[in-house]
């Protein structure tokens, strides 16, 4: 597969220097050439480049004889869901997910709500590289239509699988922070339909992401934390740019790590299902494995990326899965990330138990976990990782095991560290966890030094 085209999930590049409208046009032609015929559901997030890229991509598709239905600005999970519900041959989202506003890109979805696998992306890349595109005759071009009710249909489906009456009876106060992204068109309305009092922060669509950085994490959610505390809200909900991720904030203003939320939801899912497999990625906390095991289940880990989780969920017939970054997949509903159903399930759990979210999540322990990233040119990543394969295990004094499922995982007598090159940015990411704060800091410092040396010599 062309590494320069696809990353961890789909295409994500800086507009103007790495991505332009000709690339969007040719990606449309390449995708249409691989499909040969049919109809594609096409949507976008709030990025400033989105409409231009969507126009160019749509033109490329129609030039091959493939028709397009455009759904406007909607969340990625809504695009995936409606691709299946509308019996479309594929779905394409113009998005760069949680990346900064200068990025743009495309993500491809199958008709069964699964994202495209690396093998399917490789076929698009092969067609793109060849430049040999199908060209329809003037009277065989694809047509273009519009779907204006995607968000409403998604909300309606979510309400059917949620005990909305029970949630409404509690009168929860919820603050929603879509981060000026695509969640603006769905989450506040869904929560209102659940009978909650909704206050929205950064609730206007704006591709500059003026309210905060697109990636929802503790460092970027200061306004949401303060507002939850000041008005006495029961729950805070924050999304990334295309709303395939969600992060929850307790009534005390604690930003809950995604893997702890996975553990809480997995515990509930295991109670009501004969399925006992939960899927997560290599960078999730060990607390998830421990919680799942205590509740009679087993955890399977995959490389980073929601498509990797979805593939393994399908293979193992798992009950649930997710990523520590805030991805939650409920296979009974769809195979794409479902942040909205995750929010429904948490509100439902609060209502059923008559307990606060902070109280519920307190049952899932916190192990000190630190993350950082170091800039590394994309062309150097392979060499750097090769150097680290030798140097990093040696830099640790108590290495027990080394795994290379995704990047380089070094497991120690007390703790672990994962080093992996980003598939979407010119950085190398470091994640480490240990029983104590001092130990995890030591692991991070040793790893950072080893990575810096590798980048310098790579």
Give a verbal description of the structure.
The strands form 4 sheets. A 6-stranded mixed β-sheet has the order 1-5-4-2-3-6, sandwiched between helices. A 5-stranded mixed β-sheet has the order 8-7-9-10-11, sandwiched between helices. α6 packs across α12. 39% of the residues lie in helices and 22% in strands. The chain has 458 residues and is α/β, with parallel strands linked by helices. The mean pLDDT is 95. It has 4 domains: 138 residues, 3-Layer(aba) Sandwich (Alpha-D-Glucose-1,6-Bisphosphate, Chain A, domain 3), CATH 3.40.120; 100 residues, Alpha-D-Glucose-1,6-Bisphosphate, subunit A, domain 3 (Alpha-D-Glucose-1,6-Bisphosphate, Chain A, domain 3, 3-Layer(aba) Sandwich); 94 residues, Alpha-D-Glucose-1,6-Bisphosphate, Chain A, domain 3; 89 residues, TATA-Binding Protein, CATH 3.30.310.50. It is built from 15 helices and 20 strands.
CATH architecture descriptor text of the largest domain: 3-Layer(aba) Sandwich
Number of helices: 15
The description of the largest β-sheet is: 6 strands, mixed
In terms of structural class, how would the helical and strand content be classed?
A: alpha/beta
The CATH homologous superfamily name of the largest domain equals Alpha-D-Glucose-1,6-Bisphosphate, subunit A, domain 3
């Amino acid at each position: 597969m062309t590494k320069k085209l696809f990353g961890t999930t789909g295409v994500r590049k800086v507009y103007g220097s790495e991505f332009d409208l000709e690339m969007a046009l040719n990606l449309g032609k390449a995708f249409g050439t691989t499909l040969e015929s049919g109809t594609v559901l096409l949507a976008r997030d709030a990025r400033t480049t989105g409409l231009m890229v969507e126009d160019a991509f749509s033109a490329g598709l129609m030039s091959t004889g493939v028709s397009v239905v455009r759904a406007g600005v909607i969340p990625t999970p809504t695009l995936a869901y409606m691709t299946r519900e509308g019996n479309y041959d594929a779905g394409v989202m113009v998005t760069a997910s949680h990346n900064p506003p200068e990025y743009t890109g495309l993500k491809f979805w199958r008709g069964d709500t699964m994202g495209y696998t690396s093998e399917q992306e490789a076929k698009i890349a092969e067609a793109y590289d060849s430049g040999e595109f199908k060209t329809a005759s003037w009277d065989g071009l694809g047509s273009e239509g519009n779907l204006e009710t995607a968000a409403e249909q998604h909300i309606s489906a979510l309400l059917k699988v949620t005990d909305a009456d029970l949630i409404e009876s509690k009168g929860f106060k919820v603050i929603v922070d879509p981060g000026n992204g695509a969640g603006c068109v769905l989450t506040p309305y869904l929560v209102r339909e659940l009978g909650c009092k909704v206050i929205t922060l950064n609730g206007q669509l704006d591709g500059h992401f003026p309210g905060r950085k697109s990636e929802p994490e503790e460092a970027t959610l200061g306004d949401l934390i303060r507002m939850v505390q000041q008005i006495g809200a029961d729950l805070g909900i924050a999304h990334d740019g295309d709303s395939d991720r969600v992060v929850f904030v307790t009534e005390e203003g604690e930003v809950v790590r995604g893997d702890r939320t996975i553990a809480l939801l997995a515990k509930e899912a295991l109670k009501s299902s004969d399925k006992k497999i939960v899927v997560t990625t290599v960078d999730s906390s060990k607390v998830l494995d421990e919680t799942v095991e205590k509740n009679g289940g087993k955890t399977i880990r995959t490389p980073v990326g929601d498509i990797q989780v979805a593939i393994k969920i399908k293979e193992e017939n798992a009950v649930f899965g997710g990523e520590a970054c805030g991805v939650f997949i409920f296979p009974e509903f769809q195979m794409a990330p479902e942040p909205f159903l995750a929010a429904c399930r948490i509100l439902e759990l609060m209502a059923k138990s008559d307990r606060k979210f902070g109280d519920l999540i307190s049952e899932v322990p916190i192990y000190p976990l630190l993350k950082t990233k170091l800039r590394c040119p994309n062309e150097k990543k392979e060499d750097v990782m090769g150097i680290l394969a030798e140097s990093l295990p040696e830099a640790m004094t108590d290495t027990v095991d080394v795994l290379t499922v995704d990047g380089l995982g070094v497991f120690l007598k007390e703790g672990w560290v994962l080093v992996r090159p980003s598939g979407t940015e010119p950085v190398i990411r470091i994640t480490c966890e240990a029983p104590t704060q001092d130990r995890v800091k030591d692991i991070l410092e040793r790893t950072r030094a080893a990575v810096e040396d590798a980048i310098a010599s790579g």
